[in-house]
């Protein structure tokens, strides 16, 4: 075909070249690649789980939150207080703040001795020896405080930075801010050991963020997700059904102008389809060596150790698959969580027996695989316990000064940060609030907490609200 002398034929671009060569198979390949996040699919929207670039240099990529439901006792695990031994059984010699139940007894010493662990000599109770062996990787924050002394509000505060329900959980914020590197699993997963905390599922809620960022609850046992099994007779039948659903959804979107709630629902349906293959593979830990399973406590005599150990092992497998935020809840041990208003010795020993070996195994395994450097581990309850007894052998709620710990992902190890008074009652040095822990966690992930905002209710909302500062002293 001849052309006018004034117009030269335009060369084909790459898309045209692929479409016109190899019988169009190149175009088919390009179409598939164009929808893959690795090849720059369409611009990321607020409900997308595609990975995002951090705002700043990150030292961590993922978070594992070991949530200790009920409030572990700081002076019995991480904050030794000789004064409790010296004044055991005597009335406490400081002003007593109102407590949850006000059944106030005398000073109660710790039933367990402490030991200095690791090269750092970090003191921890001898009922958590497996965690203690990792003292040089752990930063114990002894000066944490909460704004609430009741479980439900304190749980919302711990999880969402706000004492009332309806706000996004920190896992949802991180999923929103960073997306996920795993295409076939949610970005925020809760591994339920058997106990949903006071406050319920709102502790894991997406709040005003798109529903794609809400926490997905994985239950204990081999079948991690309810109602995930295929109900159609064949894969092809299911594919045809999903194809019809997509077409109907596109028709609705074209009429309504792409409402975010519908787009999130569509994304969740499509993710559930991909999870049908990913979840059974995730749950099958038989491919792990016997030594690895034993390290996590999967052969322990105590059933709750096996339950929590399996969840810790699955958490490591989720990290390997690129899931961004994983929360583990505690197994039921026959007492009221870590909430020992009575029977402190029996209750804390049962809880430690359930979680100590699995957590030690998780830290060892992550470190051996080179994953601890890029994973922030957080061990925390919603508050601590009082130094004086409730009744004769329990402890009441104490939000005024308690201990949590962090490890990995750029956190300094072998460090005790902050301090409580001689009773372990009030934070007196380097006092921190929950917003500070949230800000520091986000910083490690490469997110500036003041910039991770969403416009809602007429103002810019964020996980740290208008508070919080990064605790640079605990960052390596």
Write out the strand line-up for the largest beta sheet, numbering strands in chain order: 7-6-8-1-9-12-5-13
CATH topology of the largest domain: Alkaline Phosphatase, subunit A
The major β-sheet equals: 8 strands, mixed
The count of helical stretches stands at 13
Class based on secondary structure composition and strand pairing = alpha/beta
How many strands? Answer: 17
Helix content: 25-40%
Order of helices and strands: HHEHHEEEHEHHEEHHHHEHEEEEEEEHEE
The CATH class of the largest domain is identified as Alpha Beta
The radius of gyration over CA amounts to 25 Å
Mean pLDDT: 87
Distance between the termini: 69 Å
Oligomer description: single chain
Morphology: globular
Under CATH, the homologous superfamily of the largest domain reads Alkaline Phosphatase, subunit A
How much of the polypeptide forms β-strand, as a percent range?
15-25%
- Name given to the CATH architecture of the largest domain: 3-Layer(aba) Sandwich
Low-pLDDT windows of residues: 26-43
How many individual domains?
3
